[in-house]
Design a protein that fits this description.
The chain is α/β, with parallel strands linked by helices. The chain has two domains: 127 residues, Rossmann fold; 225 residues, Nitrogenase molybdenum iron protein domain (Rossmann fold, 3-Layer(aba) Sandwich). The chain is built from 15 helices and eight strands. Helix 10 runs antiparallel to helix 11. The radius of gyration is 21 Å and the shape is globular.
């Protein structure tokens, strides 16, 4: 497999500050906040463009496409990586929200709008993840919303491709890891649990937009890309082979993640998070979410004093041993709460890919790195 990093390095990302209520400020001090005005940003962008201002974005994936290849624009770097790995150079991929940024609070620029207009296909996460991009994305003519694949059994059946190939265990080449105990994909299909496997694409998590933590959804996206891009790809056979190879890699990665998380004793599989990001991962691997400091799937939500008091009681009663925070949004309030209850902070990549030296700079690397950090934090506690 071309992409299977297993690095365990720590990485400190840019601080993202949340606006808190006056009561929270009294209890958790040192808060600073801010907001961004979409219309002001667009106006500044238009003025800069008319004056010939040079490109200011530091992201290598935000420049306007000049390639003759069909253009696919993604909203997040996670989906950009999946599209790139699933298409093997058959399309040009551009990403809107810069790596390391919080997708919940990114506002579009004029350059983003132009890229969306030029796109052959726009890949959007959905479920409100791109909160400040919603109006802009609504105007995209050819759009694939990944969240729409959650309840699509037909897309999941396409993802499986050839049942016989899957049963032959082709996604486990010689020398690669075998499935973890209780996570045998072949048994999933042969022992009457086909419906259970399909249920993996049904939404059991309300409006949780962090859908990349479900490998079934990612594989379904790869299959949908293969279908939608078949007419515009330069080589449809290569596109199909690439998608099949990447799906095999996703199965292999899922098995390693499952084995890593299964190594934690059951009584220690307790997750306290910064906000609601790990619901899908927890349910898939037998973990329990004790609670979140900000009880929302959005980082734009505010903490509540009463909720924090209740969360502290829950942590004390369950014996949870760590708080898992977002690499793109750790702030002093979270640190103060962690110090108050005496738990360490463990950084995970829950909103965006990490830098190259983190091992989380690809989707599969993100999943493996997060599993390693969770297991290391809980198994050793």
């Amino acid at each position: 497999m071309k992409d299977n990093p297993r690095l365990k390095s720590q990485h400190v990302c840019e601080i993202h500050k949340h606006q808190q209520s006056q009561n929270i400020r009294k209890w958790l001090p040192n808060h600073r906040g801010g907001c961004t005005c979409l219309f002001c940003m667009l106006l500044v962008g238009l003025l800069a463009t008319s004056c010939g201002t040079s490109e200011t974005s530091s992201s290598p994936t935000t420049s306007i496409a000049t390639s003759e290849l069909p253009l696919v624009v993604t909203t997040t770097d996670i989906w950009a990586d999946v599209v790139e790995k699933a298409t093997c150079g058959q399309v040009e991929v551009e990403n809107i929200i810069p790596s390391g940024s919080d997708p919940h609070n990114y506002s579009p620029s004029v350059r983003d709008i132009i890229a969306l207009e030029n796109a052959e296909l726009v890949v959007e996460n959905g479920l409100g993840l791109e909160e400040l991009l919603s109006d802009t994305l609504a105007s995209a003519s050819n759009k694939l919303v990944v969240a729409d694949l959650i309840n699509s059994e037909d897309d999941h059946e396409d993802d499986i491709h050839d049942e016989d190939d899957h049963e032959d265990d082709d996604h486990h080449p010689e020398g690669t890891a075998l499935p973890a105990e209780g996570h045998d994909h072949e048994d999933d299909h042969e022992d009457g649990s086909e419906d259970d496997h399909k249920d993996g694409l049904h939404d059991h998590h309300g409006d949780d937009p962090h859908i990349w933590f479900d490998f079934n959804i990612v594989r379904s996206l790869v299959s949908s890309l293969e279908t939608q891009l078949a007419e515009v790809a330069t080589n449809t056979d290569e596109l199909e082979d690439c998608a099949d190879d990447y799906i095999a890699q996703l199965y292999e990665t899922e098995d390693i993640v499952a084995a890593t998380l299964a190594s934690v004793p059951e009584d220690r599989r307790l997750l306290v998070t910064q906000h609601d990001t790990l619901q899908r991962l927890a349910e898939s691997h037998g973990y329990e979410i004790i609670g979140s400091v900000i009880p929302s799937t959005s980082t734009l939500a505010e903490a509540d004093l009463r909720h924090l008091i209740e969360l502290e009681e829950q942590v004390n009663s369950t014996g949870a041993t760590a708080i898992f925070v977002d690499a793109s949004g750790v702030n002093s309030d979270i640190e103060t709460f962690a110090n108050r209850i005496g738990l360490p902070l463990v950084v995970l990549y829950t909103e965006s890919l990490g830098a190259p030296d983190t091992g989380a700079d690809t989707y599969t690397g993100l999943m493996l790195t997060n599993a390693d950090r969770i297991a290391d934090a809980l198994a050793s506690s």
